[in-house]
Specification:
Blueprint lengths: L7 H14 L2 H13 L1 E3 H8 L3 H13 L3 E6 L2 E6 L1 H13 L2
Antiparallel strand pairs: 1-3, 2-3
Helix pairs in contact: 3-4
Length: 97
């Protein structure tokens, strides 16, 4: 780190993203989207065998923290991974090892 000072805002943003992905159901959503590229809410909650409201909650957390992106098409909302966000989180964690 050298003379570099910790930026409290950046540290809180990083912690916030880590908390968002640190939930078993959210990890399952990310893994599923990694395999399928994009899915709608119905496909996600049916595959995970959880309630629609629960799936929507987890998807919103991941989207609000910049891990996922969404696209509306008619009545459906499709979710996909924001590759650059997830990649930078993983690279950052790997630097800590």
């Amino acid at each position: 780190m050298g003379n570099q000072r910790l930026d409290a805002k950046k540290l809180e943003d990083a912690a916030s993203k880590l908390r968002a992905i640190a939930h078993p159901m959210r990890i399952a959503i990310i893994e599923m989207l990694d395999k399928n590229k994009q899915m709608n809410v119905t496909s996600i909650y049916e595959n995970l065998k959880i309630e629609q409201a629960s799936a929507s909650h987890h998807l919103n957390v991941l989207k609000n923290k910049g891990v996922l992106k969404s696209r509306r098409s008619g009545k459906n909302t499709f979710y996909s991974i924001k590759d650059d966000a997830l990649k930078s989180i993983i690279e950052c964690i790997e630097k800590c090892n």
